[in-house]
Design goal:
By secondary structure, the chain is α+β, with helices and mostly antiparallel strands. It has eleven helices and four strands, in the order E-E-H-H-H-E-H-H-H-E-H-H-H-H-H. It starts with 14 loop residues before the first strand and ends with a helix.
């Protein structure tokens, strides 16, 4: 099958168009300054409580005395800051406790999951964003002036903070019957090489079709059908439209599962 580029699709203001590695266009609603500030405040309260517990424990052991102890506490606090945001955003798929509470998460600018290096760089530059006097001024100004609502840490790490779509709560059962006249073809397809993630990509595309223009539908069908066919180790007949091929694949998957 021929390959093509993914067409541009009009987005509403405040959304970030991202094409996933599977060539599915996702419209992420970027998080604004207000929601991000509230999420950050929640994280700071939780982080401060954690630091307080650590300080109390160490003080009880008699390890913090004088200026040296205060210096150690300060450095440890900065280290805990970086560890807190790096750890949560890496292990919890871009979510800190504050972001999770507000339905936000951090993603790479290309829509993929945030990586450790990005989370670390984002947290490290966050020391500049949030702790230069006046506190938080740099982060607010940078995010306000940025066309993608990015603070300096986001710009350095190549990340965005987006609102999570409650897609899982909105998923409804979807049945993809074999197109009329294609029942035998569907029955002949061997989809054993496809996993659930691959089917989910096809399913997402087919459910989005009513929202797409004919040109966008066909272009995305081409981009999706190629890797699906390669994964199946199968060459679809030249006369079969990529969109119909994906419908047949979805029908075959559902028949098998």
């Amino acid at each position: 099958m021929p390959r093509c580029t993914v067409p541009a699709v009009a987005l509403t203001p405040g959304t970030q168009g991202i094409v996933t590695p599977e060539a599915v266009l996702l419209d992420f609603e970027r998080a604004g300054v207000a929601s991000r500030t509230l999420a950050f405040a929640i994280d700071i309260v939780a982080l401060a409580a954690t630091v307080l517990v650590i300080v109390l424990v160490v003080s009880a052991l008699g390890s913090l005395d004088g200026v040296g102890g205060a210096l150690v506490a300060g450095i440890s606090g900065l280290g805990l800051w970086v560890a807190w945001f790096t750890g949560f955003e890496t292990l919890a798929r871009g979510r800190t406790p504050g972001k999770a509470a507000l339905g936000l998460r951090t993603v790479s600018a290309d829509g993929t999951a945030e990586r450790f290096q990005q989370a670390f760089l984002r947290a490290a530059v966050g020391l500049i964003d949030f702790f230069l006097i006046p506190i938080g001024f740099v982060a607010v100004v940078a995010a306000t002036l940025s066309p993608r609502d990015q603070r300096l840490g986001d710009m350095a790490a190549g990340t965005l903070v987006v609102r999570e779509r409650t897609a899982r709560n909105q998923v409804v059962p979807a049945w993809f019957p074999a197109p009329p006249g294609y029942e035998g073809y569907v029955a002949s397809l061997d989809i054993s090489a496809l996993d659930e993630d691959a089917y989910e990509v096809v399913r997402t595309y087919l459910l989005r079709v009513p929202e797409l223009t004919a040109a966008a539908r066909d272009h995305l069908a081409l981009r999706l059908a190629n890797p699906v066919a390669v994964r199946m180790g199968y060459t679809p007949p030249a006369w079969l439209h990529p969109y119909l091929f994906l419908v047949c694949v979805a029908a075959a998957w559902q028949r098998a599962h």
